[in-house]
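As a next step, the fold was encoded as tokens, giving this record:
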Amino acid sequence: MKKKIVAAFFSVALMASSLTGCGELGELVEDTGSEQTQEAIQEGLDTFSDALDSIIGESEDVSQSTSDIENVTGNTVEDNAEADTSEADTSETQAEDAGSVSEGESAADAENTDDTWPVDMSTYEIKVLSIGDPAPDFTATLTNGETFTLSEHKSDVVLINFWATWCGPCVSEMPELQELSNEGIENFELICINCGEEAGIVDKFVEKKKFDMNIAYDTDYAIGNYFPTQFIPYTLIIKDGIIYDMYDGVPSKGAYDTYKLVVERLLKK
């Protein structure tokens, strides 16, 4: 728009200067009384006037277009806000419903022991486990050369912990697991199953830390695949083959105190 105004002004000045002999733009026109000069100036003014009319018309069009854009954008924002509010309300309702169902199922299902445990692993379908589910059976090789089969401990309370040497939280809670193992609690077994690391790495770690609790290899995730999780440490506490409690990460009140309380409670059942 500014370019058009300048161009119109320059056209008037150039026409005048060409007819009056001005050497530079901006010099005063001395002979404004000549007919030829007046005609040239009038022509320039007409051009300038036409340019201004065109500029004013474009300005109105731009103003209208801007108004239209603002109206459309405003409607879109309002519609999105309403949609977001509706989605938020729906999410809150679903979360509330899911929470109430989860609490009800956990308490009830944990009391229902499965007389058919251990499950038939040849037909077992892998799934994300929940409290009240029968635990998948497995046999693991321990770092001391012995084996551990879960179904052989049906009458015991069993704590299964999945861990790795590269997992800081896992390593930090292992001394407390060792302490719990050292308690020598009757009818209680604890096993820490490594997640996918080579036996040499596990052995070196165990030797350095001087752990003598049950620590098992699972280099190819043959066991871990039946206990899918997004987080480690991942801990399950089992009695009669049924999962009674489970933890993603280290308990906020500490591994030793938290797990011992649950174990002692289950042993009294």
